[in-house]
Amino acid sequence: MLQKLIDKIEKYNSSDSITVIKNAYEFAYKAHNGQKRQSGDDYITHPYEVANILADLNLDNVTIAAGILHDVVEDTIYTYDDIKDEFGEEIAMLVDGVTKLGKLEYTTKEEQQAENLRKMFIAMAKDIRVILIKLADRLHNMRTLKYMPEKNQREKASETMEIYAPIAHRLGISTIKWEMEDLALRYLEPKEYYELVDKVAKKRQEREEYINSVIEQLRERIHDVGIEAHIEGRPKSFYSIYRKMFKQNKSFDQIFDLTAVRIIVETVKDCYGALGIVHTLWKPIPGRFKDYIAMPKPNMYQSLHTTVIGPDGQPFEVQIRTWEMHRTSEFGIAAHWKYKEGKDSLTDFDEKFTWLRQMLEWQNEIKDTREFMETLKIDLLVDEVYVFTPKGDVIDLPVDSTPIDFAYKIHSHIGNKCVGAKINGRIVTLDYKLQNGDIVEIITSANANGPSRDWLKIAKSNHTKNKIRQWFKKEKKEENVLKGRELLEREVKRHGYASSILLKPEWLETVAKKFSLHSVEDLYSSVGYGGLSANQVILRMKEEYKKVFKVEDKDIVAELEKLQKPEIKKKISSTGVKVKGIDNVMIRFARCCNPVPGDEVFGYITKGRGVSIHRKNCPNANEFLQEPERLIEVEWSEATKSSYNADVEIRAYDRKGLLVEITTIIDESKININSFSSRTTKDRMAIISFVLEIHDVEQLNKLIRKFKKIEGIVDVFRSKQ
Ligand code: MN
Fold first, then answer.
1. Residues whose CB falls within 8 Å of the CB of residue 456, separated by 6 or more in sequence, listed in order
2. Is 472 helix (H, G, I), strand (E, B) or coil?
3. Across the chain, which distance is largest between two alpha carbons, in Å?
4. How far is the CA of 588 from the centre of ligand 1 (A)?
5. Is 629 helix (H, G, I), strand (E, B) or coil?
6. For 564-589, what is each residue's pLDDT tens digit?
7. 145-200: per-residue pLDDT in tens?
8. 396 membership: H or E segment, kind and range
9. Which residue of 36, 236, 296, 302 has the lowest C-beta tally within 10 Å?
10. CA of 12 to the centre of ligand 1 (A)
């Protein structure tokens, strides 16, 4: 059995000693002796096949030896040290890496899944060969999946479809990607899969004859012009056909290009020569020509693609590439692996696999696993759009990206200073969706004061969103703290609790620690910039509550309501307003103008909801005057203990420390802030709105006068809404 593997290796690698392979095989054979696979085969067949898959990728002997040994530490009595003593540190390190990945339990739980992916990326950073062995391991397990119980089959298949195949794709290893996808499809959608296999088989002969005649014609013409070429018909994978039918909502009979024609030549010049011949023989379908030679995919894939109308009117796809490109397209990163001792494994790929480097950066930056998962889902699994910088560099972004994504992809500094964008020389809005081939120019301004929160909605990639959030996190700390506090309090109310009961400072501290944050301030701030949702925090706060009061979940609401009641009662009891001639009437303060004691007010008799109190200068006053019969005189009673909501808007030139000064004044006046929001206009004016709890108009006017003295404040007024 071993000789077959050795023959395979010696075909592409005759310079390295084969001894290590022989020793590894002997060691693994002995270690796994007596163990069986689910299929009933000896266990050694598995590592042996894994080694074969690695040899098919033309990998080096160290990697293949590690592949043979990959399950020894996990499943036998031998340890890391045994491997190290016998085979040295490099092989032991690779086996150890695979063993650690093997411990990842597949789970549908999002957070766990994200954690697994994160570990996978860390493994890639350490040595990409760990991932190559893992991919080979998974591929062989998929090939032998039929021996597993049905539940495991589905789990393994979806994990393969969701994680391993996309990683193989991103590493450019198309041979493994295709086989994984087809195998996974077989277990995920068995009915559709076998139908498809059946239909393809029925059409095969007719199809092959057709393609063969096409190839014959091509071969003659290409030979005539003196280009050395290998031409073959390449059946498309079942999954790619399935996906096409699904995505374009087509029936099987509507899918024509079940087979692609592939032309492999010696030089790039010959690629374009061959393309010319294809296009003179058959008519190309407009819009289907893609030049991945000039514009390689991020996984280094290069080829010319074109779809032409064949002799009988049926379209077929032609792929043209050099042998070098062919190798890259089949083996991806494995084809470019250079084994230089003592070299950081990633540096070689820095240029070519920028996405990988980026993922690794992100997994350092993004502490929240859920956020990391989202980033991966969007940036690893989706289709891309390719656009150009004004200098002609290609930038790849997720489909539906906007100029903002482009700006942040170039550099966060560009993003933060972005004020506009030009596409192909024309100014566009920042929510423009980038198209393939667009030339994107970002207009920046040194005066730009950072991103706008609205950009979080416009940006497509999570990379961008993270960068924007980071900016807010850093630059707008004080604002975030306030904002986060408000969001939390609002969420508490929405859940029907009183904030004084649930948001206990000591619990907030505990919860902050649970989110690995340093302080309660940081916790507020995270909620403020959107790193944590208010709901996430509330859930943890409830846990604390449960711990202290030892109550079940369902009892919490009742419990909290009980505690809350006195507070509500107090608010209802004294409104502070007397309605002329009527006692005991229901009073509401109109939201449109939020009157406070001291304001000139009038009452409006509503239909069934008592009397609403408006300011005489209420923006809606004119409407009410249309119905004079409903108006009623009201006056403030002398002693009012209650508090009233007042809206105040402040316009100011944005500067650091502004918010702190404003909130300090509010605090010193012993006034509560009920809600708060702020935004920056295009001309960099800060508009800050508060809803303040005040006692009377005198107190409010005093406060407004104090605000007006703050440096940079342009205007302060009671807002209408
Ligand atoms: Mn294994």
1. 465, 468, 469, 530
2. helix
3. 108
4. 71
5. helix
6. 443 333 333 356 777 766 666 677 78
7. 999 888 889 988 988 988 888 888 878 899 999 999 999 999 999 999 999 999 88
8. strand 394-398
9. 36
10. 25
